[in-house]
Amino acid sequence: MKIIVLGAGLVGGPMVADLAREADFEISCADINSQSLEKLKRAHPSIRTIQQDLSSPDRVERLVSDSDIVLNAVPGFLGYQTLQSIIRSGKNVVDICFSAEDPFQLDDLAREKGVVALVDCGVAPGMSNVLIGYVHHQLDQTEQAEIYVGGLPQTRIWPWEYRAVFSPIDVIEEYTRPARLVENGQLVTRSALSEPEYLVFPEVGTLEAFNSDGLRTLAQTIPARNMKEKTLRYPGHIDKIKILREVGFFSKEPITVGSTTVCPLDVTAKLLFPLWKLEPGEIDLTVMRVLVKGVTNGQSVRYTYDLIDRYDPETQVHSMARTTGYTATVAVRMLAKGLYDRIGISPPEFIGQHKQCVEFLLKGLAERGVVYHETIERT
User: Which of 43, 63, 80, 81 has the alpha carbon at shortest distance from 2?
Assistant: First the structure.
């Protein structure tokens, strides 16, 4: 089976390495960065690397034309148009891009082309949706769903106490894109970084949570009266980022400085990204808690799923790449085995409707050391 991975970055590279373990897979990887491709090729001589600018839809269509399954791992700003190109090519796809557009806009195209398209197939959105979808189908009525998730460095280094564990430009998008929540059955919008909460995780300590736009398709597919997704950071992070945002450092509108015109966001990125760079061997954490409350057989019940994952020194794969990337690579195996074959756009909560698929994902992740702990309580 021919599989091509689009993107060889922090998450794309480890996904290629994981898929290369399968003798039945013929793996290709395309990226514009020749250094990333050369590193992959040295570690895995059997894979085919292709240096290619993936910003052209026509080029993407030609690139995936002889593949059986495509794994889309380009940055978020390219995600939607790349997904559209893959579907137009008639190729089944697993997508981990976090773009602002509604993926259901491509549902008609996917159905017309007979394509199975698993979108938002990472950790959150991704496994968070799978678990909420699964619990929703165990309950008679789903009342509330909450997601708390964050990628963090284990060592807190002033001033940011943060490392960008995926595309840094997508991180800034989290700080600026309005957050969509469901309150009392209605879709509402809150500003990013708003409504802070403090949560204690035994293995990590106290973290602060803020509204972010991570519900995605859940707001359309799960009829719960209240749902929210919040991003986790070390305490104090919100205020620092709010200062940058309110002053205008994240603005895309050009300004004139002396005789030069610059985009504030470009300057901010140039200054921040080196400070946020995750160094080789640096230990990072992924922390996630998913809460789902509802009623079954007249009894109130609460499901809790907890994940705490760390950098793996043996494979030298960072935690966010493990938790995001391995969800996608196990999903690729799920498609390859024919366990999931729904034509059209499938957000992860659709996978949650099928117990066999949920068990396959959880088992595959556990085999890679990514373990979700389930707690069920009568309330």
Answer: 63
Q: Please determine, for residue 168, whether its predicted confidence score (pLDDT) is greater than 80.
A: no
Single pTM value for the model:
0.93
- Residue 98 pLDDT exceeds 90: no
Instruction: Please state, in angstroms and rounded to a whole number, the distance separating the CA atoms of residues 159 and 237.
Output: 9
Pick one of 3.40.50.720, 3.90.1300.10, 3.40.980.10, 3.30.2310.20 as the CATH number of 2-123+320-369: 3.40.50.720
Portions of the chain given CATH number 3.30.360.10: 127-310
Mean pLDDT of 204-219: 95
Report how far residue 179's alpha carbon sits from residue 189's, in angstroms, rounded to the nearest whole number: 6
Closest CA to 119 of 135, 108, 130: 130
- pLDDT tens digits for 243-283? 999 999 999 999 999 999 999 999 998 999 999 988 888 99
Q: Any residues with CB less than 8 A from the CB of 175 and at least 6 apart, and which?
A: 192, 193, 241, 245, 250
What 3-state class would DSSP assign to 263? coil
Q: What is the CATH topology of the domain spanning 127-310?
A: Dihydrodipicolinate Reductase; domain 2 (3.30.360)
CA distance 249 to 311: 31
Q: Please tell me the predicted confidence (pLDDT) of residue 231.
A: 96
Enumerate residues 6+ apart whose C-beta is below 8 A from 326.
14, 15, 18, 364, 365, 368, 370
Which ranges of the chain does DSSP label H, i.e. alpha helix?
Answer: 12-19, 34-43, 57-63, 76-88, 107-113, 127-136, 168-176, 218-221, 237-247, 264-276, 319-336, 348-351, 355-367
Q: Where in the chain is the domain with CATH 3.40.50.720?
A: 2-123+320-369
Separation CA 376–CA 379 (nearest Å):
10
Could you identify the residue written with the tokens 């595959």?
Answer: 364
